Amino acid sequence: MTQQSTSKAKPRISRDVMVASICGFVVAFMVGASYAAVPFYDWFCRVTGFNGTTQVATSAPEKSLERRIAVRFDSNVSGGLPWKFQPEQTEISVKIGEVVTVYYTVTNQAARTTTGVAAYNVAPLTVGAFFQKINCFCFTEQSFGPGEKREMAVVFYVDPALAADREYDDLNTITLSYTFYPVKDPAPKPLAATETDKRKGNL
Fold first, then answer.
1. Are 171 and 124 in contact (CB under 8 A)?
2. CA gap 83, 86 in Å, rounded
3. CA–CA gap between residue 6 and residue 108 (Å, rounded)
4. How confident is the model over 87-115, as a mean pLDDT?
5. Is 14 helix (H, G, I), strand (E, B) or coil?
6. How would you write 16-70 as a 3-class SS string?
7. Is the distance from CB of 139 to CB of 119 less than 8 angstroms?
8. Which strands, in side-by-side order, build the sheet including 91-95?
9. What is the rounded CA–CA span in Å between residue 53 and residue 130?
10. Which of the residues 122, 124, 176, 202 has the least number of beta carbons within 10 Å of its own beta carbon?
11. By the 8 A CB rule, do 126 and 101 touch?
12. Where are the beta strands (DSSP E) in 32-167?
C-alpha cells in the first residue's frame, strides 16, 4: 500500500516541477518583452514613419520635382524649462525632393545654465515615412548658459516617393513640430584638455 502511494506521488511532483518551470519561463519572457518593447517601438516608428516619426537621410535625392508643398514649423516648450523657442519662419514652400535648411531660435531666459532635449513629429502622421531629415538638433542634450541665445538648424527634404503615392495627391501641407523637454541631470561633459595635451595633439 505504501509503495503504491509513493509510486503515484512521483508523477505528481514531476508535473508540479514542469508547471513551475513553464510559469517561470513565461514570466521571464514577459519581463524581457516589456524591456524590448520600447526599442522595438522606436525602431518600428523610424522604419515605417508611424506616429509621425520622420526618417533620417544620409544623402540628398538626385533631383527635385516641380510639385510644391507647404511646410509649417511648430515649436513648444514643456513646463519647467525657461526657454523661448521659435522658428525663424513659420511656413515655407518647398519643391518635393528639394533640400532645405531652416532655423529655430532658442533663448535661455533663466539666470542659470539649463539643459533640454527636443522630440519631434510631423503631421499628418502618415507623412513621417516621406519626411527625410539630413541634420537636426533632436534627441541631443542642449545646454544653454544664462541668457544665451542660439540658432539651431534643421536640414530636410520631402521624399519624391510621396508624389508617386496617389493617397497624397491632395496633400498640400506638412507640419514639423518640435517640443523641448527639461533635462534634470544632464550628462557630464568631458574635462577640457590641458595646454600640454593640446600641444601633444598638434604634434
1. yes
2. 10
3. 77
4. 97
5. helix
6. HHHHHHHHHHHHHHHHHHHHHHHHHHHHHHHHHCHHHCCEECCCCCCCCCCCEEE
7. yes
8. 91-95, 68-77, 173-182, 114-123, 142-144
9. 10
10. 202
11. no
12. 55-56, 68-77, 83-87, 91-95, 100-108, 114-123, 131-135, 142-144, 149-158
Whether 88 and 105 have beta carbons less than 8 Å apart is answered as yes
Q: What is the pLDDT of residues 106-149, one digit of tens each?
A: 999 999 999 999 999 999 999 999 999 999 998 899 999 999 99
Asked if residue 124 has a cis previous peptide bond (ω within 30° of 0), the answer is yes
Edge-to-edge strands, sheet with 83-87? 55-56, 131-135, 149-158, 100-108, 83-87
Whether 36 contacts 45, CB under 8 Å: no
CA angle 150, 194, 148 (to 5 degrees): 15
- How far, CA to CA in Å, does 130 sit from each of 23, 127, 175? 44, 5, 13
Among 129, 104, 123, 114, which residue's Cα sits nearest to residue 48? 129
pLDDT tens, 181-197?
999 877 776 554 434 44
